[in-house]
Amino acid sequence: MNGEYVPVNMNIATNKPSVVTAEIRNLVTSNQDLSVDFSGSLITGQKLFKELAVILVVALLLLYFILAAQFESLTQPFIVLLEIPIDIAGALLLVKLWGGTINIMTMIGLIVMSGVIINDSILKVDTINNLRKEGMGLKEAIYAGGSRRLKPIIMVAMASIISTAPILFSQGIGSELQRPMSLALIGGMSLGTVVSLFFIPLAYWYIYKGRGLRAKGSEHS
Predict the structure, then answer these.
(1) Which of 157, 168, 173, 202 is an S-S bond match for 193, by CB 3.0 to 4.6 Å?
(2) What is the pTM of this model?
(3) DSSP code per residue over 57-110
(4) pLDDT in tens, 5-53
(5) Which long-range contacts link 165-173 to residues 24+ away (Cβ below 8 Å)?
(6) 10 Å Cβ neighbour count for 90?
(7) Could you give the CA distance from residue 177 to residue 154 in angstroms, rounded to a whole number?
(8) Does 216 score more than 60 pLDDT?
(9) What is the mean pLDDT of the chain?
């Protein structure tokens, strides 16, 4: 880069730095002799935030293919993955209600929460599948699978929530940085537990109820 270099320190107190940087670019574009480049923790944080979002999407795609191979079905992975958007919405809602912001630590909390809570749905669907292979009916398999997975799901949720709850009330060094991650984890795990216990079995029944009725009718005929 030729010419004089003039560094300018800026302290931007906003959650939308892209708007500020766009306004600054518009100011300098009128003068062809000037060029502008942005750097600093705010710009670096934006890049990391986008990278974590891409990582989350890629992880979900890989998870779908793995579940499709495990369940030998292209439909059942959707039952499990339906939980992720609901849990993320619950996590972001708690972050907003608590007055937090969506930042890098929030994204890390969402990724950790998604990896923990989705295991409950995977094991529950797998349990129902095994019971159906043993000859149990659709509703009976759903009830039995829910009963078997009830305590493990609640124990995992309680352990995750109780272990991260003290961060919300901590006043030590770094507590402000860790609080969004804790909020995302607690919000997602709280709603995700309800989803795993009730929504996943309901979605499974809704998808397979027609097939179950046809199979039952053919047996009677």
Answers:
(1) 157
(2) 0.71
(3) HHHHHHHHHHHHHHHT-SSHHHHHHTHHHHHHHHHHHHHHHTT---SHHHHHHH
(4) 666 666 655 555 555 556 666 655 655 666 666 666 666 767 777 887 7
(5) 168/98
(6) 21
(7) 28
(8) no
(9) 79
